Amino acid sequence: MGAIDPVPGSPESADGEALAAGDAVEPRVVERRSGRAQVAVAADLAQELPIAFEYNGISHAVMLATPADLHDFAVGFSLSEGIATSGQCYGVDVQRNAAGITLAIEIAAEAFVQLKARRRTLAGRTGCGICGTESLDQVLRPLPDLSGIALQVTPSALARAHAGLEAVQPLQRATGAAHVAVWCARDGAVVVAREDVGRHNALDKLIGALARARTDPRDGFALVTSRASVEMVQKSATAGIAVLAAVSAPTALAVRTAESCGQTLIGFARGAAFNVYTRPDRLSTG
Fold this sequence. Notes:
By secondary structure, the protein is of the alpha/beta class. The chain is 26% helix and 29% strand. The chain contains eight helices and 13 strands. It has helices spanning 70-80, 109-118, 136-139, 155-163, 170-175, 199-212, 230-238, 252-261; strands at residues 25-34, 37-46, 49-55, 58-65, 89-97, 100-107, 122-123, 179-185, 190-196, 220-224, 243-246, 264-267, 275-276. The strands form three sheets. It has a six-stranded mixed sheet, with helices on both faces. Helix 1 (70-80) crosses helix 6 (199-212) and helix 6 (199-212) packs parallel to helix 7. The longest helix has 14 residues, at 199-212.
């Protein structure tokens, strides 16, 4: 496998996979009821498949996820979980079979040695980002210090980002069952968007897309259509994202974790009104 090629940072799939068709959606006919009325209607269901992560031939994790943007997923998961840096990810081979999909990822020898030393396995679910973690130390892992990142975000930029969500959610429009994570420029323009049935997976795919496009995470902010759990803070902070905004609330542990690493954490970001839980100095009044 060769080196991972960078891809343009765009809302489309980096792997040429249409998010609203093909593997990501399964069409069905369902019975719709309203009072005593019954009618057969067409419905699109979001796909959720087992996706296995394999590093240098060794199984590491199985996540349930939308089978799209798989190269982004492989790179982003590797980065956000601290398994390897973008420079240590040499290639991804997507292997499909009847049981699901295996992402065979080739990483540098030093990263692989550290991975084996951690002896960490994950059994992923849509709502869980740390299933199977072997110790408390692995749950609250060290994070980079983001306190020195100088970034100013305006309320109008957050409002613009929130207003731009609908246009970059084809899977959500089709199925009503997907989260999106977006990367925005300082003015709030949505630059990259990734969807998945799982909020952690959507963020991992976004992080992978940014890494493959060699986008500097200090040049903008991330917005997610979910609550801000501690795992979302950990993943975004590990990727170097200094401002994370969520449309729903953060947890108490997420706030403490963001505070400890110098990340600005925003909740209830739905237009120009929002709550700032940590590092409000990055929010300008303009």
